[in-house]
């Protein structure tokens, strides 16, 4: 569905992505693993248009995304759930969600219905619909960030480290939500440090190390222990 | 005592115009996290456009008002393109310095076209002085206060009831989140800038119509009053901008009465100094900054 070919992105003078190619397949969860500093978040920000790729292409069903502005990419249906949630802390939960529907204002209507369906999906957000988002717990903010992205009726959900800074029990809950979204047939690209948990849910995965994709496959095809060691530590076994 | 109350009344009226100037600054600062030093001089362009229409065509209040607004908005659009849209990302200081350069440019341009020291501006003639028991209320002060109140109410509706308002709030709340949520940041920033200019234009018109004469000093004057009121009220808070404006107006009116004109200027800066030391987040800034910090901790 989204074909990424030879993407190079620099951060200041540092080459963060040195030619990344991967495919995000329709109707499944593609997971990107890798140690800290491998360039995972850089890739998310590049796909969402906030960072500009130096070269390479990103084609959504054949249509080039590289060079578009962030809001145009959201309009195409590629929607990011950023790391650390990034909700609007001084706006109500409801307003946060309505913001998410901006991108499809041309296709009028349906905002109320979508709002209801998101609030049905996350009953805790319904309870707090008129509260300021800054008063929510970390887990609730994560739900809000997911809900906001769903309001855009995304073709692809890009999720950047949804487990960051959350208690383990909340992380389980967030992953159950992700699993449910996958089971509904949505296309999800998940960047995650918690390789163990991510591999339980992934249909497909890639390993990103030092700005390169060094491995791709399906969970179960490979020795998980070695993969996890590499994902966490960037360690390569001598072979 | 009567004097004190009378001064307070006058101060609140002038303060409402200061509040509008501070609101213009706050809108721009809230959305862009940058200061627009050329805000006052943009208003200056508008006021002189109005004065020109008045002296050449004997235009009435409404055409002069519209010309003032148009001049301020067009000058601001020029400032936005050159100092803000063209300077990207987090180069906040570069924007500020370049808007300072445009301040000089606009002021100089106005001074070239209008070489006299002062020019006449139409006033609200014929309105009767209002008496409230022992107190007097100048009719132009009442117009000033009511216009400011109506404008603030209108702004509140724009911010809470319209799509543009929601856009604007996302940008001032969390810029990165706004970008990933599909908000067209560049467009909203420009519209916010023009909205701020329109508010400033109204404030400039009211002030000029009250004084009945204008000079090229008005640009710097408006930037100073707006900035000071904004800082007293709390950077980035709309409520703070209004409170800061009203407080500044009242303190100035009292100082003018009890200390004279030079005492007024000293008092203004003393007020700014005290506000910065005692209330570095401003009169209304505390609560909001607190909520933001708390939200940050919860991450």
Describe this structure in words.
The complex is a heterodimer of chains A (239) and B (299). With 239 residues, chain A is an alpha/beta fold. Chain A has one domain (2-233): Rossmann fold, CATH 3.40.50.300. Chain A has helices spanning 40-47, 70-76, 93-100, 111-121, 123-127, 138-150, 168-183, 195-201, 224-233, and strands at 2-11, 14-24, 29-33, 55-60, 63-64, 78-81, 156-160, 187-191, 204-209, 212-217. A 6-stranded mixed beta sheet of chain A has the order 6-7-8-3-9-10, sandwiched between helices. A 4-stranded antiparallel beta sheet of chain A has the order 2-1-4-5, covered by helices on one side. In chain A, strand 4 (55-60) and strand 5 form a beta hairpin. In chain A, helix 3 (93-100) runs parallel beside helix 6. The longest helix of chain A has 16 residues, at 168-183. The two termini of chain A are 35 Å apart. The model of chain A has no long low-confidence stretch (mean pLDDT 87). Chain B is mostly helical and 299 residues long. Chain B has a single domain (2-122, 133-298), classed as ABC transporter involved in vitamin B12 uptake, BtuC. Chain B has 11 helices and 4 strands. Chain B is globular. Chains A and B meet through helix 2, helix 3 and helix 6 of A and helix 6, helix 7 and helix 11 of B. Chain B: Its main location: membrane.
In the sheet with the most strands of chain B, the strands line up as: 1-4
Report, as a whole number of angstroms, the end-to-end distance of chain A: 35 Å
Identify low-pLDDT runs of chain A: none
Q: List SSEs of chain A in N-to-C order.
A: EEEHEEHEHHHHEHEHEEH
Shape descriptor of chain A reads: globular
- The total count of strands of chain B amounts to 4
- What do the pLDDT scores of chain A average to? 87
CATH C-level class of chain A is: Alpha Beta
Major pleated sheet of chain B: 2 strands, antiparallel
Structural class of chain B, by secondary structure, is mainly alpha
State the helical fraction of chain B: over 70%
The CATH homologous superfamily of chain A corresponds to P-loop containing nucleotide triphosphate hydrolases
Assembly of the depicted chains: heterodimer
SS content category of chain A: alpha/beta
Strand content of chain A: 25-35%
The description of the largest β-sheet of chain A is: 6 strands, mixed
Give the chain pair forming the largest contact, with residue counts. Answer: A-B, 36 and 25 residues
CATH topology category name of chain B:
ABC transporter involved in vitamin B12 uptake, BtuC
Family (chain A): Belongs to the ABC transporter superfamily.
Keywords (chain A): Amino-acid transport, ATP-binding, Nucleotide-binding, Transport
Protein name (chain A): ABC transporter ATP-binding protein
GO molecular function, one term (chain A): ATP binding
């Amino acid at each position: 569905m989204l074909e990424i070919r030879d993407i190079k992105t620099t951060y200041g003078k540092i080459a963060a992505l040195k030619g990344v190619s991967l495919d995000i397949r329709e109707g499944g969860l593609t997971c990107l693993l890798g140690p800290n500093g491998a360039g995972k978040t850089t890739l998310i920000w590049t796909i969402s248009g906030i960072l500009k790729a130096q070269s390479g292409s990103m084609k959504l069903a054949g249509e080039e995304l590289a060079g578009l502005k962030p809001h145009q990419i959201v309009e195409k249906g590629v929607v990011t759930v950023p790391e650390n949630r990034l909700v609007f802390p001084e706006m109500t939960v409801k307003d946060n969600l309505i913001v998410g529907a901006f991108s499809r204002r041309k296709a009028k209507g349906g905002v109320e219905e979508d709002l209801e369906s998101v609030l049905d999906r996350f009953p805790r957000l319904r309870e707090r619909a008129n509260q300021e988002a800054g008063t929510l717990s970390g887990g609730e903010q994560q739900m809000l960030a997911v809900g906001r992205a769903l309001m855009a009726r995304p073709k692809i959900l890009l999720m950047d480290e949804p487990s960051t800074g959350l208690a383990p029990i909340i992380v389980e809950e967030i992953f159950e939500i992700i699993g449910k979204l996958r089971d509904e047939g949505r296309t999800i690209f998940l960047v995650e440090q918690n390789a163990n948990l991510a591999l339980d849910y992934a249909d497909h995965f890639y390993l990103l190390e030092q700005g390169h994709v060094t491995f791709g496959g399906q969970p179960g095809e490979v020795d998980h222990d070695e993969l996890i060691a590499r994902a966490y530590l960037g360690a390569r076994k001598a072979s | 005592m009567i004097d004190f109350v009378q001064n307070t009344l006058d101060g609140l009226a002038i303060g409402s115009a200061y509040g509008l100037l501070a609101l213009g600054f706050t809108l721009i600062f809230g959305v862009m996290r940058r200061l627009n030093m050329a805000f006052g001089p943009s208003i200056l362009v508008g006021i002189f456009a109005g004065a020109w229409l008045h002296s050449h065509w004997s235009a009435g209040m409404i055409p002069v008002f519209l010309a003032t607004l148009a001049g301020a908005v067009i000058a601001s659009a020029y400032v936005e393109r050159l100092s803000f849209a063209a300077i990207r990302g987090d180069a906040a200081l570069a924007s500020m310095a370049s808007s300072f350069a445009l301040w000089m440019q606009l002021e100089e341009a106005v001074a070239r076209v209008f070489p006299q020291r002062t020019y006449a501006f139409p006033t609200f003639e014929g309105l009767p002085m209002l008496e409230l028991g022992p107190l007097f209320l100048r009719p132009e002060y009442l117009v000033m206060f009511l216009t400011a109140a109506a404008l603030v109410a209108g702004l509140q509706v724009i911010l809470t009831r319209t799509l543009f308002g929601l856009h604007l709030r996302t940008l001032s709340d969390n810029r990165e989140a706004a970008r990933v949520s599909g908000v067209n940041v560049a467009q909203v920033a420009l519209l916010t800038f023009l909205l701020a200019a329109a508010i400033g234009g109204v404030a400039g018109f009211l002030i000029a119509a009250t004084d009945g004469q204008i000079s090229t000093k008005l640009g710097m004057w408006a930037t100073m009053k707006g900035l000071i009121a904004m800082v007293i009220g709390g950077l980035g808070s709309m409520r703070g901008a209004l409170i800061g404006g009203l407080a500044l107006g009242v303190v100035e009116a009292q100082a003018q009465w009890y200390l004279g004109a030079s005492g007024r200027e000293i008092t203004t800066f003393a007020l700014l100094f005290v506000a910065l030391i005692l209330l570095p987040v401003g009169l209304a800034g505390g609560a909001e900054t607190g909520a933001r910090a708390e939200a940050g901790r919860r991450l």
